[in-house]
């Protein structure tokens, strides 16, 4: 009703005084108003209206808003016939919001239905049985409306404002109605009593699976059920193959059609019997006979039209629907099957897609339901008809689309799509092994993820159900215990945690085999129509643009297209802009092949700071270069373009950052000897604590020994690693080991821990750092080796944003290197570093007292496990010299190992002795010389200590035996303690001293472990 008519109604009410007086006056006012606008029709207030006249629906009375009015409604019987009774209520005052009124109107029994017609709430109750039941239906509806309700009403903004008023509405407006023109009332009611199930070809691929489908449908407690089915597995492909063979005049199409017949016949024989079996086999035989004739026609013509092809292909769905409906009936279910070509009408929409005609489809559905009443319906997926009743299909993923359309047409309470996965994953589980099932998604999130390659759902499937807020649930038919993924407008939100960005980013998806096209030039800036010309050229060659990115300078536009289309796109652009290219207004049309798109999707990303930063930080830590970036203002999606070869690693990187622990690191350990084995035990004991308390996940992905290596894609069980390494280990291969730890799993951060003393292993540090692999080691060979290699190693480590930690190279687990770095980074100037760096020599000289022989103490140290297998390695002082070189280089001194004078404690005649046993046997004969030095020191009140010194001021170092007063800190040691004194500008009068155990597997492994934790806390920033 127009606003002018609405104004007439208000004036009529006001003139009659209805707004201020009795409800009787209002009734008269309404009747006068109705007679004025419909002079040829009569108004009835009696309980029964004649059937000979027509009924006139009341349209909206403008936009009512403003003042508060209290009103209630009475229900009038409009017509009575032998078939049914129809009752209609017209509510002239709209509720405060139509949604609440609409919901309230639905609250009676399912016998009533409601709709909001403009600003009116129209409720109709109908019944197809007896007069008694009709009265019950009337009572249910009227009891709802005869409550006192509060409404908000007033005048349209463009009408004169009226005073507020209170009254009760006690009259309804009707006219005579003809039974012949009443709308058909279906015997099967649409609405939320319906649930929709969709089963794909895999779900109905065998007799056993069809039986399981029937069981699922039977056990669904919904009052009414619609089941949408695809053709049996592979049948659609077989039908297309039939057409292709017939079109190419390949006689084998007849045998292929026979195979289709036998497949369905065998399935029917397994599942059906009696009349159901006979009926289906009869229909199947007729269909096959008709198909033979049609295929013969294709064979003769050597050509097939699209509609002809669609008709042939659609038979797979017809047969599977009939088989399933027969199985359900056999199980006692009241069931009919629906050929959706009789109901679903679609129109071509270009790009090999179709659009549903909902208006026409609703009409046909109403008619079909009235003619085929049942509690369950099995409908064909994939197929439909054009407005000219020509068979067609819904194209790719058409069965899912069918289910969604049916959900909208039936106003179902839920659409369940049954497939062979547990739901929608946070990422492709084939690429990210720790992808998780998402319990809930919004429509927008599901649409974004499906567009970017999440294959569970096609984007267009979501569109029909969004209109009526119908949720879609993705379930696994092979795992009924899995709840699946629910897709709805407002999904159940996870507990919000500002530190947990999983709340905001739901999932990640990728598209491969793309190419970037970059059009740039100074002549583009500020020139209207440039973008239109670019994408017009792309459209002309039929290419699909996946992503667009343009800087605000307008100097360039880049976009992604499928790689197979990029050649045509580039040629079209060069042809379109040939003149601009020649004149220099455009500098180039560049193509970057072998690209992939990575998209992060999440509805709650919008207006949430830090999501983009976290994403790009994860990519940076994984050493991934981003080629292009795009994000819409809705902020539901962040899209980046990366190299195809980096795509999987990029996907794992971002997924790890958002879904795994904040710091997840793949660990490869080389050298599972004394120190390596101890480190593995420490990791095993602390893994759970680290994950819970510091959100750090250290996964040991490989263990490499001298002969065997143990590799894992998900993480080695550290409680059984020794047995697994021995029994399941493969031949050791250092290159393969590094590649596996770095690339063949879902964790983007990789560290290799070298627990050996091998120069060969140390020579690989350079390559590992360059590839983005962090390195941690107690091995001194790299840092004390040739100076040029060391300098290149440190430069590369900084350039590649990788970390190289070596705390345990000096002082085992003591924080020597950490302390030195802190002093240097805070601006202190190192003057001298002096210390006892060898736990072995510390033990020997701490116990070389009184009248004990030097050789006796050496043998004691070897027996206690303090020395190397050959004690000469300790006594020669080379190990101490390496530590001095490491400290000197850390202080900025470019010294070689050969620049350090070393006093060896191995007598010259014994340096060439063949065996360790011979050395130990002959060592006592050289005790006199060292005993003399010890005695002289004792007489002077001093002790002997084997020390290393870094003289930073004079840029030199030395390793030698020195004497210290007994009150000196170096003289106060016990056991195998190390002690290091830092003399600096700040710590000048009294040096900064670090003291503690400097040898042993536990403390050395602890030093390596501390470096692992330091790496975890420093990821993302270059180390100093």
UniProtKB/TrEMBL annotation:
One of its GO terms (molecular function) is NADP binding. This is ACT domain-containing protein. It catalyses: L-aspartate + ATP = 4-phospho-L-aspartate + ADP; L-homoserine + NADP(+) = L-aspartate 4-semialdehyde + NADPH + H(+). It comes from the Eukaryota. The keyword ATP-binding applies. Its main location: plastid. InterPro entries: AceGlu_kinase-like_sf, ACT-like_dom_sf, ACT_Aspartokinase, ACT_dom, AK-HSDH_N, Asp/Glu/Uridylate_kinase, Asp/hSer_DH_NAD-bd, Asp_kinase. Gene3D superfamilies: Acetylglutamate kinase-like (3.40.1160.10), Dihydrodipicolinate Reductase, domain 2 (3.30.360.10), NAD(P)-binding Rossmann-like Domain (3.40.50.720), VC0802-like (3.30.2130.10). It comes from Lactuca saligna. In the C-terminal section; belongs to the homoserine dehydrogenase family. One of its GO terms (biological process) is threonine biosynthetic process. Its cofactor is a metal cation. The keyword rRNA-binding does not apply. Pathway: Amino-acid biosynthesis; L-lysine biosynthesis via DAP pathway; (S)-tetrahydrodipicolinate from L-aspartate: step 1/4; Amino-acid biosynthesis; L-methionine biosynthesis via de novo pathway; L-homoserine from L-aspartate: step 1/3; Amino-acid biosynthesis; L-threonine biosynthesis; L-threonine from L-aspartate: step 3/5; Amino-acid biosynthesis; L-methionine biosynthesis via de novo pathway; L-homoserine from L-aspartate: step 3/3.
């Amino acid at each position: 009703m127009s606003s002018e008519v609405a104004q007439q109604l208000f004036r009529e009410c006001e003139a009659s005084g209805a707004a201020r007086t009795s409800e009787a006056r209002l009734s008269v006012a309404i009747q006068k108003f109705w007679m004025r606008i419909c002079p040829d029709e009569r108004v009835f207030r009696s309980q029964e209206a004649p059937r000979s006249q027509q009924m006139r629906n009341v349209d909206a009375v403008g936009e009512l808003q403003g003042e508060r009015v209290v009103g209630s409604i009475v229900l009038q019987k409009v017509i009575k016939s032998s078939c049914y009774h129809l009752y209609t209520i017209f509510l002239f005052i709209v509720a405060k919001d139509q949604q609440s009124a609409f919901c309230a109107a639905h609250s009676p029994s399912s016998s009533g239905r409601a709709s909001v017609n403009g600003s009116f709430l129209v409720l109709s109750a109908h019944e197809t049985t007896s007069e008694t039941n009709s009265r019950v239906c009337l009572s249910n509806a009227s009891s709802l409306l005869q409550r006192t309700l509060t409404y908000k009403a007033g005048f349209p903004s463009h009408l004169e404002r009226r005073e507020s008023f209170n009254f009760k509405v006690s009259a309804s407006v009707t006219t005579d109605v003809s039974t012949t023109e009443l709308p058909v009332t279906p015997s099967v009611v649409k609405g939320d009593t319906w649930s929709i199930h969709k089963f794909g070809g895999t779900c109905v691929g065998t007799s056993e699976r069809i039986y399981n489908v029937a069981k699922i449908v039977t056990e669904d407690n919904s009052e009414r059920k619609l089941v949408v089915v695809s053709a049996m597995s592979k049948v659609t492909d077989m039908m297309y193959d039939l057409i292709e063979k017939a079109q190419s005049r390949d006689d084998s199409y007849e045998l292929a059609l026979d195979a289709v017949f036998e497949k369905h016949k065998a399935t029917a024989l397994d599942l059906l019997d009696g009349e159901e079996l006979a009926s289906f086999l009869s229909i199947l035989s007729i269909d096959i006979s008709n198909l033979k004739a049609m295929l013969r026609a294709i064979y003769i013509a050597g050509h097939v039209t699209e509609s002809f092809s669609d008709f042939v292909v659609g038979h797979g769905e017809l047969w599977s629907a009939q088989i399933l409906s027969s199985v359900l009936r056999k199980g006692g279910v009241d069931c009919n099957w629906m050929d959706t070509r009789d109901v679903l009408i679609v129109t071509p929409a270009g790009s090999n897609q179709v659009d549903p005609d909902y208006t026409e489809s609703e009409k046909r559905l109403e008619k079909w339901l009235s003619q085929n009443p049942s509690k369950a319906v099995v409908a064909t997926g994939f197929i439909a008809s054009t407005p000219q009743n020509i068979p067609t299909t819904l194209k790719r993923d058409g069965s899912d689309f069918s289910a969604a359309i049916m959900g909208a047409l039936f106003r179902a309470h839920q659409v369940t799509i049954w497939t062979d996965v547990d739901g929608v994953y946070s990422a492709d589980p084939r690429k990210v092994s720790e992808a998780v099932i998402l319990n809930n998604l919004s429509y927008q999130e599901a649409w974004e993820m499906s567009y970017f390659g999440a294959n569970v759902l096609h984007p267009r499937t979501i569109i029909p159900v969004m209109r009526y807020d119908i949720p879609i649930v993705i379930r696994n038919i092979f795992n009924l215990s899995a709840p699946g993924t629910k897709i709805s407008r407002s999904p159940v939100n996870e507990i919000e945690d500002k530190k947990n960005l999983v709340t905001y980013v739901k999932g990640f998806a990728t598209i491969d085999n793309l190419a970037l096209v970059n059009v740039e030039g100074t002549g583009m800036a500020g020139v209207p129509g440039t973008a239109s010309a670019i994408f017009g050229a792309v459209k002309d060659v039929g290419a699909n643009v996946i992503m667009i990115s343009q800087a605000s300078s307008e100097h360039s536009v880049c976009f992604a297209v499928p790689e197979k289309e990029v050649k045509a796109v580039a040629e079209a652009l060069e042809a379109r802009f040939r003149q601009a290219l020649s004149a220099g207004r455009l500098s180039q049309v560049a193509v970057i092949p072998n690209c992939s798109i990575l998209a992060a999707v999440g509805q709650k990303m919008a207006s949430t700071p830090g999501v983009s930063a976290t994403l790009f930080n994860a990519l940076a830590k994984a050493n991934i270069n981003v080629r292009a970036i795009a994000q819409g203002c809705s902020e539901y999606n962040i899209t980046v373009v990366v190299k195809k070869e980096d795509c999987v690693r990029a996907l794992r990187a971002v997924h790890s950052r958002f879904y795994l622990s904040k710091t997840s690191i793949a660990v490869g350990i080389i050298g599972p000897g004394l120190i390596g084995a101890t480190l593995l035990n420490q990791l095993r004991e602390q893994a759970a604590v680290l994950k819970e308390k510091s959100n750090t996940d250290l996964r040991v992905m490989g263990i490499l020994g001298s002969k065997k290596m143990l590799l894992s894609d998900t993480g080695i069980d550290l409680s059984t690693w020794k047995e697994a390494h021995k029994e399941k280990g493969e031949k050791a291969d250092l290159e393969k080991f590094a590649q596996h730890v770095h690339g063949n799993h879902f964790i983007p951060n990789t560290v290799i821990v070298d627990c050996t003393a091998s120069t060969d292993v140390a020579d690989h540090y350079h390559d590992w750092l360059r590839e983005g692999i962090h390195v941690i080691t107690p091995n001194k060979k790299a840092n004390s080796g040739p100076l040029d290699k060391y300098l290149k190693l440190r430069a590369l480590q900084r350039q590649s944003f990788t970390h190289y930690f070596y705390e345990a190279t000096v002082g085992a687990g003591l924080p020597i290197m950490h302390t030195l770095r802190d002093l240097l980074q805070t601006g202190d100037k190192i003057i001298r570093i002096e210390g006892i760096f060898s736990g072995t020599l510390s033990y020997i000289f701490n116990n070389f007292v009184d009248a004990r022989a030097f050789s006796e103490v050496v043998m004691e140290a070897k027996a206690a496990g303090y020395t190397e297998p050959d004690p000469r390695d300790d006594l020669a002082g080379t190990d101490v010299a390496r530590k001095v070189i490491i400290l000197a280089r850390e202080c900025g001194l470019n010294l070689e190992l050969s620049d350090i004078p070393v006093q060896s404690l191995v007598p010259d005649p014994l340096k060439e002795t063949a065996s360790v046993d011979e050395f130990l046997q002959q060592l006592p004969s050289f005790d006199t010389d060292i005993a003399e030095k010890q005695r002289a020191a004792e007489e002077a009140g001093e002790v002997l200590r084997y020390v290393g010194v870094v003289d930073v001021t004079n840029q030199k170092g030395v390793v030698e035996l020195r004497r210290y007063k007994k009150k000196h800190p170096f003289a106060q040691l016990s056991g195998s303690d190390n002690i290091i004194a830092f003399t600096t500008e700040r710590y000048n009068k009294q040096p900064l001293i670090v003291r503690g155990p400097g040898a042993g597997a536990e403390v050395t492994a602890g030093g390596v472990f501390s470096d692992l934790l330091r790496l975890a806390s420093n990821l993302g920033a270059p180390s100093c």
